[in-house]
Amino acid sequence: MKLFWFELLYPLFLWLLALLPVIAFIEFRSLRFWLKSNISSNIKSSKIPTFNFLLRLILKSVAFIIFVLILTNPGYTHVQTEESRKWIDIVLLLDVSTSMLAEDMEPNRIEAAKWVIKDFVSKLVSDRLAFILFAWKPFVSIPLTFDYDYISSYVSTITTMSINQRAQYLDFDWVLKNLSWTSIWDALIMWTDALIAANNWDTKREKAIILITDWAAETWIHPKIAVKYVIEKWIKIYSIWMWKKEWAPLCITNALGVKDCLYDTDTWLPRIVKVDEEMLNFLSASTWWKSYSASSNDALQKIFNDLSKLNKSEIKVKEIKSFLPAYPIFLISLLAILSILSFLEFKTRLNLNGIS
Description:
- The structure is a single chain.
- This protein has 356 residues and is α/β, with parallel strands linked by helices.
- It has two domains: 2-80 and 319-355, no CATH class; 86-314, von Willebrand factor, type A domain (Rossmann fold, 3-Layer(aba) Sandwich).
- It has ten helices and 14 strands.
- It has helices at residues 20-38, 50-71, 109-122, 148-156, 172-177, 184-198, 223-232, 277-286, 297-307, 327-355; strands at 2-3, 6-8, 74-84, 88-95, 128-134, 138-145, 206-213, 236-242, 248-249, 251-253, 259-261, 272-273, 290-294, 316-325.
- It has a six-stranded mixed beta sheet, with helices on both faces.
- Helix 7 (223-232) links the parallel strand 7 (206-213) and strand 8 (236-242).
- It is rod-shaped and about 130 Å long.
- 26% of the residues are buried.
- Residues 89-240 form the VWFA domain.
- The chain crosses the membrane at residues 12-32, 53-71, 326-346.
- Keywords: Cell membrane, Membrane, Transmembrane, Transmembrane helix.
- InterPro entries: UPF0353/GerABKA_families (IPR050768), VWF_A (IPR002035), vWFA_dom_sf (IPR036465).
- This is VWFA domain-containing protein.
């Protein structure tokens, strides 16, 4: 029980304070009896030391209250909180292939992703974060770091031209036709190895990869091989598919605000971006990955709000309470009051003996 700034270990003793009226009654009865026995009837009432009696009664009441408080064992409680938490190493993989310019989100897929990523980073506390861009090949933009401000400022500068998407030994027209390629599986394997290496010295850290892509294409490593490899390393994967069920034309708004659509070089019809649903079905059936479908800006924001709580369930708080007794303060006060009472009692008796 808390009394002002003191913690009372045995608050039940406070019930003894109910005896205060009884003590006052006994004191009045004692005074009346003493006066009848020791003072003659012809003494004026003004000479009876009423003030001294009231002062002594107050001091006795205070002394009794302090005595009761001592019985409750008052003290100060200091609470020391120890928080153990499984911090997470998070790798953000962002697709910057040309298909991310599709404007089925406002203003387009990549800009919508950048906005929610910055909001996600602002909510991190002590999780290390790495940032990877990938298109036809993965590119390590920022290694694992706690510098969230730098990550946020870097995210603002990302475009589909942030990495060189030209494969010098491939026909670029073929690359463009395939939307600059999206080497999802290469990026996953590369950062699976990087996370394992980074955590050799810290086994307490969880490892998670957040993959943000429209899943328009894949290259190089076969998806089934990559998926099997990542699963064996027990790394949590959270994949976000930015797409609508309806096909989205690949349109780009240029610096003049004019919307240009990319055209297929064979049919000269607007280029269409669609998700690889066959691959999504394979992932759902063969892995324990947690996957999300973001078909709008609001849906994407909600997904990242959920992801910002990744490590909340791992927090363990341990409170250590230490108690510092405060009864010596009350004991000294009690002794001081008793000393004053003894002096007043002695003085009163001398005065009354003089009167009688």
